[in-house]
């Protein structure tokens, strides 16, 4: 078991290290392997916790350096087990057999796999970079600094919440006695040469080694590509020593403006001169700033609302195609011609089939009936279509009767399950439908997607055929493969006539399909008022929830179907019902600007300040979308103006961020606080400066917004305008008494920020202001 017992290969065991053996775990499961080590997932028997065991190839018992390496490992592990930091992978101890390190298991594996498998948002990219910088800053801030010396995406692990932890730190210290050339050679074996700094040939570079490696990882995160792809490994190092670096043109064009500043940091980190590379204590401040610039709340709406319109399955598509006979006939004739040339079939049989097909192709029904013989009805064509199927396609009742007379199988199915009856129903051939039913067609026989003839009749809105099928005991509540009943289809497509027939035959009004939608959900979603009224009159459950906990009222409110929404409210639907994100119908109608529905819901007691899971009120959503008429209604109805939503953003923050000038004016005139701050200390004026919202900025200043308010980074609006290189906003802020000497949390004035990031247009503004001040002094 895990403990602090003496290890057989150590003369002086490290008493602070826990030792494990394979007996402490359930069977190992290899999850990764490489030139340096294998990694296993293993569940601890007592702790019931998944752990990772990394077994280095240097730790094989047969190795002549086994005991020395184990001693080094124990010494390093004794130091590493004490390290506890949010972005550093915890070490639990040493496994003696097999020999390796026991550490936390990370569910999403390494960063290199994440970068290949998924398209990562810019916000997440910046977060990963910042978390990596924080982890490395922690290691380098130790006394003495703990060097990583092998920083790469493969050694950055990702947890279930997509936060990162740095692994394998300090382990390269085992190899301190290697020469620089051996370091390079070992890096080639491990696949880490891309991350090695150019000065490695001249000896260890200390903390700046990790800074260089960080810059290459940063490039791979921004581009989601492998650095120096397609280049020979040793050639990479030769190029790097000569000054080559990964191509900047591969950084996506859709990157945010802040990416340019991140690239500037990256270039400084991979500088050829060590002294020009920043320390991680500086790097982490910049990554924090850049990550902060991208942190804005995201209004998350359940994606379960959208209902894909169910259409006939693939098996019926060909049924709707008027050229099906032509396709089958041409295909079969080509095949028969090939058989005739090879002599691999009876010539009489070929001629017989050719005659029938040619007559079908020419639509010569009269001569086809004359030529038809009993032996013809056994013919099968492509996709297992029979002659009876093709006869039904023609719509000729007498031809169908003749095929049936000669023994055609009334319930024959194609390879996709189509029966002659399904073909007749889909093509709305009433007389043929009646004939086939009288000849014994199974009205409940389904195709491969479990569609019955009644499903097709309901889809088509054909109440006459629907009655014929029901009169012959068609199952009224039968479900196809997605759980849709005939009533679902009629309700979706607005076929009131069919819906009435189905209801009169005891169709289950509240039957739910695979996503728990009832027919009333579908009628509400598509705005079919008369069907909704019919269903409600028959006792439909007004507050039944589909996937995502959406009710029919949610759907009608979101889609803007006022009459349906009014009907549901009048019939007793819950106006404050919550979906799985705690959106009410009022939230959804406000978001989409359906002011009439909002007014009706409020009139019937809807909670105007109800919050979603993210703390958004209806006013937040209307403000974010710029729904000025709805905003006016909500304010008139006494909605809270300064209520804090996600990240403590108010409606004014959202309207400013998304540049809705009219909404900003309406909120300010109605008394919204222009100086309210979010969780990071951002005011709406900060957002106006950062997002280049000049008109919104002017309105905020007119309503006494504090021009020198500082957020938690110490930035004023002038700092943000300087970073954006917006000379017009900089001039506007200066004219409104912005403090030119205000310092942020890193002791930067707005001018110093502009100089640092080479924002020339605002530098000119600042230096011009300085000259004006100088001229005015005696």
Automatic annotation (TrEMBL):
Source taxon at top rank: Eukaryota
Intervals holding ANK repeats: 383-415, 416-448, 449-481, 482-514, 515-547, 548-580, 581-613, 614-646, 647-679, 680-712, 713-745
InterPro entries attached to this UniProt entry: Ankyrin_rpt (IPR002110), Ankyrin_rpt-contain_sf (IPR036770), Dendritic_Spine_Reg/Scaffold (IPR050889), Kinase-like_dom_sf (IPR011009), Prot_kinase_dom (IPR000719), Ser-Thr/Tyr_kinase_cat_dom (IPR001245), Ser/Thr_kinase_AS (IPR008271)
Keywords: ANK repeat, Repeat
PROSITE patterns named in the record: ANK_REP_REGION, ANK_REPEAT, PROTEIN_KINASE_DOM, PROTEIN_KINASE_ST
Pfam families: Ank (PF00023), Ank_2 (PF12796), PK_Tyr_Ser-Thr (PF07714)
Gene Ontology MF annotations: ATP binding; protein kinase activity
Domain Protein kinase: 25-291
PANTHER family membership: PROTEIN VAPYRIN, ROLLING PEBBLES, ISOFORM B
Protein name: Protein kinase domain-containing protein
Organism per entry: Scyliorhinus torazame
Lineage: Eukaryota, Metazoa, Chordata, Craniata, Vertebrata
């Amino acid at each position: 078991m895990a403990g602090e017992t003496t290890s057989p290969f150590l003369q002086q065991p490290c008493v602070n290290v826990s030792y494990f053996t394979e007996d402490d775990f359930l069977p190992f499961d290899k999850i990764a392997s490489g030139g340096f080590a294998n990694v296993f997932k293993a569940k601890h028997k007592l702790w019931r916790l998944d752990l990772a065991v990394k077994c280095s190839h240097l730790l094989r018992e047969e190795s002549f350096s086994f005991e020395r390496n184990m001693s080094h490992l124990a010494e390093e592990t004794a130091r590493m087990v004490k390290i506890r930091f949010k972005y550093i992978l915890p070490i639990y101890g040493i496994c003696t057999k097999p020999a390796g390190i026991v550490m936390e298991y990370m569910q999403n594996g390494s960063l290199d796999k994440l970068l290949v498998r998924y398209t990562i948002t810019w916000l997440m990219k910046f977060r990963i970079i910042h978390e990596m910088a924080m982890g490395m800053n922690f290691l380098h801030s130790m006394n003495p600094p703990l060097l990583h010396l092998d920083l790469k995406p493969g050694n950055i692990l990702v947890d279930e919440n997509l936060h990162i932890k740095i692994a394998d730190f300090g382990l390269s210290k085992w190899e301190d006695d290697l020469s620089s050339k051996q370091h390079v050679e070992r890096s080639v074996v491990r696949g880490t040469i891309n991350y090695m700094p150019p000065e490695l040939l001249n000896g260890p570079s200390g903390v700046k080694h990790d800074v260089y490696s960080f810059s290459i990882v940063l490039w791979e995160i921004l581009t989601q590509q492998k650095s120096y792809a397609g280049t020979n490994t040793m050639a990479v190092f030769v190029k790097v020593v000569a000054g080559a670096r990964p191509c900047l043109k591969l950084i996506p064009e859709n990157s945010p403006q802040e990416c340019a500043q991140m690239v500037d940091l990256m270039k400084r980190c991979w500088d050829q001169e060590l002294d020009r590379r920043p320390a991680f204590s500086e790097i982490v401040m910049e990554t924090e700033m850049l990550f902060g610039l991208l942190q804005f709340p995201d209004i998350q709406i359940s994606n379960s609302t959208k209902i894909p319109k169910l259409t006939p399955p693939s098996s019926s598509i060909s049924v709707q195609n008027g050229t099906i006979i032509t396709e089958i006939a041409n295909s079969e004739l080509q095949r028969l011609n090939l058989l005739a040339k090879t002599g691999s079939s009876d010539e009489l049989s070929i001629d017989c089939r050719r005659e029938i097909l040619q007559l079908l192709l020419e639509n010569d029904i009269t001569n086809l009936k004359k030529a038809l013989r009993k032996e013809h009805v056994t013919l099968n064509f492509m996709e297992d279509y029979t002659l009876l199927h093709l006869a039904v396609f023609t719509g000729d009742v007498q031809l169908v009767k003749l095929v049936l007379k000669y023994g055609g199988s009334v319930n024959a199915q194609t390879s996709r399950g189509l029966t002659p009856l399904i073909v007749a129903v889909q093509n709305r051939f009433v007389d043929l439908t009646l004939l086939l039913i009288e000849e014994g067609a199974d009205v409940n026989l389904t195709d491969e997607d479990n569609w019955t003839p009644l499903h097709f009749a309901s889809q088509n809105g054909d109440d006459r055929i629907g009655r014929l099928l029901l009169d012959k005991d068609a199952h009224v509540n039968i479900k196809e493969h997605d759980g849709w009943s005939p009533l679902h289809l009629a309700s979706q497509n607005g076929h009131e006539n069919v819906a009435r027939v189905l209801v009169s035959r005891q169709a289950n009004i509240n039957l739910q399909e695979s996503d728990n939608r009832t027919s009333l959900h579908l009628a509400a979603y598509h705005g079919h008022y008369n069907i909704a009224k019919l269903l409600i009159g028959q006792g439909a459950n007004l507050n039944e929830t589909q996937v995502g906990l959406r009710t029919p009222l949610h759907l009608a409110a979101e889609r803007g179907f006022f009459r349906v929404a009014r009907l549901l409210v009048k019939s007793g639907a819950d106006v404050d019902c919550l979906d799985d994100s705690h959106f009410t119908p009022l939230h959804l109608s406000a978001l989409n600007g359906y002011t009439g529905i909002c007014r009706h819901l409020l009139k019937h007691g809807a909670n105007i300040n109800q919050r979603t899971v993210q703390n958004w009120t209806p006013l937040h959503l209307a403000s974010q979308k710029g729904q000025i008429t709805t905003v006016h209604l909500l304010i008139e109805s006494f909605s809270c103006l300064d209520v804090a939503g996600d990240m403590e953003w108010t409606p004014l923050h959202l309207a400013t961020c998304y540049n809705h000038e009219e909404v900003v004016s309406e909120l300010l005139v109605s008394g919204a606080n222009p100086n309210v701050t979010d969780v990071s200390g951002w005011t709406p004026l900060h957002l106006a400066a950062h997002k280049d919202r000049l008109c919104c900025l002017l309105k905020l200043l007119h309503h006494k917004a504090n021009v020198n308010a500082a957020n938690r980074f110490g930035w004023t609006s002038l700092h943000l305008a300087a970073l954006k290189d917006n000379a017009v906003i900089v001039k506007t802020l200066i004219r409104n008494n912005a403090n030119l000497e205000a310092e942020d949390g890193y002791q930067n004035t707005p001018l110093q920020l502009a100089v640092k990031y080479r924002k020339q247009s605002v530098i000119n503004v600042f230096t011009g202001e300085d000259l004006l001040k100088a001229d005015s002094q005696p």
